[in-house]
TrEMBL record:
Region described as Disordered: spans on this chain: 141-245, 258-290
Biased composition (Polar residues): 173-184
Biased composition (Acidic residues): 141-158, 185-208, 261-270
Recorded superkingdom: Bacteria
Gene3D superfamilies found in the cross-reference section: TSP type-3 repeat
Lineage: Bacteria, Pseudomonadati, Bacteroidota, Flavobacteriia, Flavobacteriales
Protein name: Uncharacterized protein
Length: 340
């Protein structure tokens, strides 16, 4: 709340502001580049707002240096108000305020300087693994999954997107969130289908059959999860015998080039690893084409921090003790999708 004292001549002397427990909110004005930050104390029916115009402020654009605005005109003012009734954000966000709301006290700044800073405080790919757990510079089995503390140099698939921003860390077209049960790589139950020591979310060949997971998307729909050639309930990318003929897929690589897709003993157009009988063509056909990678979405949290310094209000303010007032911060979360 606002701490004030009254003089004999009726002037209000501001001594301090107390809005620490109130949420910082933002509305856009009716004019171009017009904004208002505000905090409302519903207990005492009071609010403080900062109205300003800025062609460079955007709550999702990082500021290289603070945006500094002088509080010396009607377009840039710090305003304290007391009301006869409880107000909501509609009071500041609607063009026409509620007619039932009356301002009983008002203080308007005549000088000061606002400082606005926008920064990114969090980025994550929402892949089921916390960003801090995607530092893979140490063994994933190690409980100290944080490694060297630097997430930017951890890029398992070398696609230029660090794991903590990459929804598909190994670029196998299976989302990391799918490849990690319980959303926790530190959990002993994380998936490692081929038991090679590399969990599926970091393994390009999840079942260790010599065919990369991304190449087991036979219908080219962008996900290998629904491709099950032998209809045994296990998708090919997790099945080390894709046609269930008793011969492991990795052993059907006849020419030993670590890829069974080009081995077709009976020349029927069906690779042996998908052909239950290499003398006929009863098995499903295989296009041999590699599906495209998934688009990547990063959830980014931008934080706006607002302070107003050297505040002076109209009237006598000799006893004002909060010349530098911090509005606190407001976070804005957005999703940014880019093609991989």
């Amino acid at each position: 709340m606002l701490t004030v004292v009254s003089c004999d001549d009726g002037d209000i002397i501001v001594t301090s502001f107390e809005f620490d427990d109130s949420t910082l909110e933002l509305c856009r004005g009716s004019l171009l580049n017009e904004f208002v930050f505000f905090k409302i104390n519903t207990t005492t029916n009071e609010a403080i707002s900062y109205n300003f115009t800025s062609p460079i402020y955007n709550d999702t654009t990082v500021t290289d240096t603070p945006i500094l605005i002088d509080l010396e005109n009607d377009d840039n003012q710090l305003v304290y108000r007391q009301f006869n009734n409880t107000v909501t954000s509609d009071y500041y966000c609607n063009t026409i305020p509620d007619s039932d709301i009356t301002v009983t006290e008002e203080l308007i700044s005549i000088s000061g300087e606002a400082s606005i800073i926008v920064e990114i405080v969090d980025e994550d790919d929402n892949d089921g693994v916390l960003a801090i757990n995607e530092d893979v510079t140490v063994n994933v089995e190690d409980e100290d999954i944080n490694g060297d503390g630097d997430l930017e140099n951890d890029d398992t698939d070398n696609d230029g997107i660090p794991n903590y921003k990459d929804q598909d860390d190994d670029n196998d077209n299976v989302l990391t969130s799918v490849e990690i049960p319980n959303n926790d790589v530190t959990d002993e139950s994380f998936l490692d289908t081929d038991e090679d020591g590399t969990p599926n979310y970091l393994d390009e060949d999840d079942d260790g059959d010599g065919i990369k997971t991304i190449n087991e998307d036979l219908d080219n729909d962008g996900s290998p999860r629904d491709d099950d050639s032998d209809n045994d309930g296990i998708p090919n990318y997790l099945d080390n015998d894709d046609d269930n003929d008793g011969i492991l897929t990795i052993d059907e690589d006849i020419n030993q080039i670590n890829d069974a897709r080009d081995d077709d003993t009976d020349d029927d157009g069906i690779p042996d690893y998908l052909d239950t009988n290499s003398d006929n063509d009863e098995a499903p056909s295989f296009t041999g084409e590699v599906s495209s990678s998934l688009d990547n979405t990063v959830i980014t949290t931008f934080r706006t921090t607002l302070t107003v310094n050297n505040i002076l209000f109209g009237g006598s303010n000799d006893q004002f003790t909060d010349e530098d007032f911090s509005f606190g911060f407001r976070d804005q979360e957005i999703s940014i999708t880019t093609p991989k």
